Amino acid sequence: MSIQDEMRQVKLASPKLAAADGETRNRALQAVSEALQAEREAIFEANREDMEQAEQDGVPGPILKRLKFDEGKLRDVIAGINDLIHMPDPLFQTQLARELDEGLVLKRVTCPIGVIGVIFEARPDALVQISALCIKSGNCVILKGGSEALRSNKKLFTTIYEAVLKAGLPENCMMQLEARSEISELLECHASVDLLIPRGSNAFVQYIMDHTKIPVMGHADGICHIYVDKDADLDKAVPIIFDAKTQYVSACNAVETLLVHHDIAGDLMPRLKAALDEKQVELRGSRAIAELIDCEAATERDDATEYLDYILSVKTVSDIQEAIDHINYYGSHHTDCIVTENAAAAERFMDLVDSAGVYQNCSTRFADGYRYGFGAEVGISTGKLHARGPVGLEGLLSYKYKLYGQGQIVADYASGSKTFCFRDL
Amino acid sequence: MSIQDEMRQVKLASPKLAAADGETRNRALQAVSEALQAEREAIFEANREDMEQAEQDGVPGPILKRLKFDEGKLRDVIAGINDLIHMPDPLFQTQLARELDEGLVLKRVTCPIGVIGVIFEARPDALVQISALCIKSGNCVILKGGSEALRSNKKLFTTIYEAVLKAGLPENCMMQLEARSEISELLECHASVDLLIPRGSNAFVQYIMDHTKIPVMGHADGICHIYVDKDADLDKAVPIIFDAKTQYVSACNAVETLLVHHDIAGDLMPRLKAALDEKQVELRGSRAIAELIDCEAATERDDATEYLDYILSVKTVSDIQEAIDHINYYGSHHTDCIVTENAAAAERFMDLVDSAGVYQNCSTRFADGYRYGFGAEVGISTGKLHARGPVGLEGLLSYKYKLYGQGQIVADYASGSKTFCFRDL
């Protein structure tokens, strides 16, 4: 069977999975949790083989760390599955119930999106998390993980898929792609796939967005800003900037550009430079900044660059409006922060900056599903349609309108012989 | 200034409009209502010129009827604006408020999508409705109406835009395109336009979807089905099918394919044919149907055709599952109905059919924002992301996450020196 035909089978399975009750889906999650425990040694063995191969191939340390699937990570994913089991069923929830006329009742009820394709980095724990979120939300899933995790993913997928089938979920409700070449087939399957969630480098996500008709949820760039207002408390500003830049430089929610009100730049910059020097952060400053501290010269290109590295561009602004305009123009609408003690300035910034996350006095690194209390996330969206920001269970839902009648026809309402009452129930 | 530059100005206006308070937006709606009254004669005159031109050009009757903007239509749109004024403000609504830790508060707050491009048919009243929905929801709008309404639209747009500026909305919050050639420029402006809503023929909507990177909300096909179950009440089935087919044949929610349980086909078909003969509806039947009544022969092509005409394809199915599978395969996920007295069969159909609207015992023609009690609609979406089905005010909203801190940094939570509390407020 071709990949395209297999995906069509997944599409055909999706209404069946959508109709599976919450108890069945929870039973499937329970079965997954037990199967992962039962198969632990074989999973660890497959992961050891992946790790050996990756080490031979000279894969860098941080990627090896993500690739590793050990006792600790197994415990974490199983804890995550147990959390999901105890969450209320997101499906079949009535969002609206309205009597349109006597005996004509409209209900808006949550349902899954259908078939979700997720392309993710070489992290075996991500495969488990994504699968669990999709099972809980009644979505069929097509998984393509990073190739370094091939053996681990194969074993994890087989373990999970067999467990959910035994628990009563429909055949073909999950599918795994293994070869990188299969991604292009996935991108063409807009008849079978309702949503794509690509994770990974900007260039990769942008490639996906440019080469498919399937709706894509996610983000390419993450150019996050911190604006230090004239009414900032510098005792807060310095640690916030230090954390947002250095706590994990390669994250999409790390700060890349610092905007400083010119009244406060003389106080802030020497203190900030001293702090960032500890981590050898390279500062690229505008002319006004270069007059205050020793730094590289920034160009306009820096304004539009996501470094993902120990580099920070800094410029002064003459007022809050200039900061807002800069962020809306150069930013990626991900997460942007104002440091200020002035509540009115904070509200103005938060209302006018057009980003998924707008923060006052805290690190941009908080932009994350776990830290928002969503349990887990499938990604972060910088789009403004459907889900925005960190996307958890709720972002994997759609709804349908159910209308219950007793023979009503539109002609009676068009002629005026009947009229709508619109009474919310 | 080029069209592209003008659209960039609209994009720049969008955060300002997003921050305008509800009172200002309602004052703008009030000003629009008054200006339309004040300019009524000039508007009617522009419309008379459009009507004369259209008649000379041989534009067909039903389109002329939509093009006309008279006393009655003015009254209707003004009533619609007044309804909107009295609706609660959809913006700045807190959807989630959660303390993540002491002094670290997350809020999810509704906000507009930003800049919405609407391409619509030659109906001047649609221009007023769409503008009013966008003003209420704080969205900037780029309007391109059907060319037959050029003069009416120009006068209406100027009247509305001048009124909202005087009421305090930001400059460039609305823009009108006049030439058809400007549509292609609109399609390329993905940096300035957040959402496109095209209305019109399937071919036109499909063209838009295929030629832009901007997210598109709407529907191309509307292949709606009615399935008459073996437990159907034929006294309901016949009028429902008659209404769904003939009440307005060129609507997207008109029925195009009828599926009949074979046990009941012998009773239903002669009665149905007698009713539909009144309106000269052409029936195209499968072989089993052709044995029961006099009809044309249907081919598989009929299964996938939206006639928008007095034509109905009919086939028998051996059970409800066959009907569900047919609808999910050939349908357009718009609106599909089961006629049955059996509640379990109805629930099964409504859970398994993957459409925006799933109905029991009523006409598919009810799929409409006004009939759902939404006040007005900008369109009907057959996609499953963001809004689905008839799209009213709510479908024009997004949200942003606001995080209020007091200097919190992620390093403290990563090291375990602080922990999240996650307390919903």
Give average pLDDT of chain A, whole number. Answer: 94
Largest interface: A-B, 78 and 78 residues
Q: Name the quaternary structure.
A: homodimer
How does the major sheet of chain A shape up?
7 strands, parallel
Descriptive notes:
The structure is a homodimer of 425-residue chains. By secondary structure, chain A is an alpha/beta fold. Helices cover 43% and strands 21% of the residues of chain A. Chain A has 16 helices and 17 strands. In chain A, the strands form four sheets. In chain A, strands 10-9-11-8-7-12-13 form a seven-stranded parallel sheet, sandwiched between helices. Chain A has a four-stranded antiparallel sheet with strand order 16-2-1-17, with no helix packed on it. A four-stranded parallel sheet of chain A has the order 5-4-3-6, sandwiched between helices. In chain A, helix 3 packs antiparallel against helix 7 (150-166) and helix 5 (71-86) packs parallel to helix 6 (124-136). The first copy, chain A, is globular. The interface between A and B is large, with 78 and 78 residues. Strand 16 (397-408) of chain A pairs parallel with strand 13 of chain B, so a sheet runs across the interface.
What would you say about this model in short?
In chain A, 43% of the residues lie in helices and 21% in strands. The first copy, chain A, has 16 helices and 17 strands.
